[in-house]
Each structure stands twice: as C-alpha cells, then as structure tokens.
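Before drawing any conclusions, I looked closely at one protein's amino acid sequence and its backbone structure tokens, quoted below without any editing.
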Amino acid sequence: MAFEAESDFSKQLITRHKCSACFKQYNKKEHLVEHMKVSYHSVHQPRCGVCLKHCKSFESLREHVIGPLPKESCSRVFSEQGCNLCLKVFDSPISLGEHKRSCRLPAPSPIGTMKLPYSDPIVVSHNGRGPGAIAIDCEMVGGGDDGTLDLCALVCLIDEDENVIFHTYVRPQIPVTNYRYEITGLTEEHLRDAMPLKLVQEKILQILYNGESIVRARMQGGKARLLVGHALEHDLDCLRMTYPDNLLRDTAKYPPLMKTNLVCHSLKYLTQKYLGYNIQTSFHDPYVDSVSAMRLYKRMRAQDHPNDASEISTDAYKSQNVTSKFDSLRAKELEQMSPDELYEISRPNYKCWCLDSSQAIQP
C-alpha cells in the first residue's frame, strides 16, 4: 500500500505542467493555458540571469536575487557576478567590475532657483533617424484657500544628451497661497516676471511637435518627439496641456519599473535603485529630476530583447491585440500545445521601450 501511494505521488509530480517562463506548475493543462493568457509572458519581461526565470517587474526580479528570501542558487551567483543596479549577471567578477564603472551614474548638478537667461526655447536637433526624446519636469506651488491646488511655477525640458532646451518660471493663472519653499525653494520674487502660462504652452508644444501636424503625431508620431517624465499626467494637467498617449514615456507607469502589485515607485526611489545616486535631498530641482527620468528611460530603452517584425512596425501598441493568438485558437488546440509553444504565442500587454530603439533605426 505504501509503495502504491508513493507511485501515485510520483506520477502526479511527473504530470504537472510547468510554465516555460515563470516556472509555476499546474495539475491541469487548462490551468496552465489560463495562466498564459493573463500572465503576458514575453522576451520583454525582466529575467533572472542565472535561472532565466521571468518576473513581472524589476522589483520582483530584485526580490528573487537579493530580497529577504531570495532563491539560494541564484543569490549565490548574483552576489559575485551580478549588478545591483541593472540586475544583469556577468561572466566573471572582473567583467562585473568593468561594468559597474559605467552603470553607476554621477548625480547631475542642480540648476537651482537662479534666474536663467532663457526667454525662447533652444531647439537642439536630434542626430538619430528617429524622432528623439525630450524629458520634462515641473515644480508646483500651491493655490486656493488652503494652498493644496497645484500650480506650475517652474518647468524644465532637456534633450537626450541632458542639454537644457527650455527652462522658465511660469506665471500662475490664480494667486499663489503657498510657495512650498521647503520643497521648491521658490519665493514671490522668482515669479514676479515669470512667463505667462499660455506662452509656456506654445513654446513647449513647438518643441515637442517639432513641425509635425497634430493629426499625424497622434497616429504615427512622425517627427514629433517622445515625451519622457515621471507622473507625466500630473505635469501636463498643471500645464493645462495634452500630448498623444503613444508619444508618452512615463517612468511612473512603465510596468517593469513598478512595484510587484503594479503601484508606482517614486522617482527618488527609482533613481537610487537603478542609477545609483540620490535626488531630492533638499529642494527639488526640475533639471535633476528630468535628467533622472531621461536616464531611466534610456536604460530601459537600451535593453537588448529579440523583437518580432510585427512588434517593431506597430507604433501604437494595442493591448487588445495581445491575446489575439490565444483567442484565435480553441481550448482543445491550446491544451495540445507544449509549454514552450504556449510561450511562443504569448505577448506583453505593454509596449517595451526597447522597441523605440528598434524603430529609430528603421529606414
């Protein structure tokens, strides 16, 4: 009897169905199929450089290799050959040491609240074949009776090389009741001769659309620039502006940079964990914050992922197309496929930023 029970138990272990990406196991093949439909596994997911397990985000990958309860075998290798910033694993400690010198970036020098001589935007041409990217950050003061209404008082735009394109104080449309000096470093004097909000809007849109029509920018992008930032929706709301969703690159909403429960991290946290320096230790500086957002974007964009031609050619990545290959097959057909075959037809539910780099080199 004991032998038969042991045999049945062994049989159950053999017949369990293991996901090729995250290694979860299921007793029934139909459960594995359902898992693949909602997990959106793909080559674009963060992956352990030791065991090759796919993770939902870099945060979950970090927990996998250096968290409170890491996988022991992966943790041992990572402690000797892994980079704590980009989480890549290298061939040897020597290769890791060479990599770390370029991976840990120096903190940019803040501009501060001095008066800058920019009255017109300085447009810097992009040398690449793609549209290029512009990073933005705003500092807010308070309006309303209790000072809780966010009003844009300072805005900074930089290019991919961290050159300042536009930096100006903004004249709020209603009276300021709280300058939030302990955070912004701003006073009434800074905004005395500030640029009107409407003119600021015009100049920013002039830079972003780059001579492209609004209609084409919303459909394909064209020459319009990608807009990079952290919590971009908040900045655009305070500027009373809109910009096409397909051209936004928000480090607060990019799934690989979010928490395991898909809640966003602060820019301060992301900068410290992925770039290796601290920001916002005193006054918040929009130049420093925009540079940090741009560096995060470029680091994510530089990831080397295998790409399908269909992914590269689609500018607006639609989540409803993600499950089309699963939806086009019947349940019995899916259950007859191997775990590797199910993984092959799985697609991410977000557009990986590495595709921006791929599109930039297209003729």
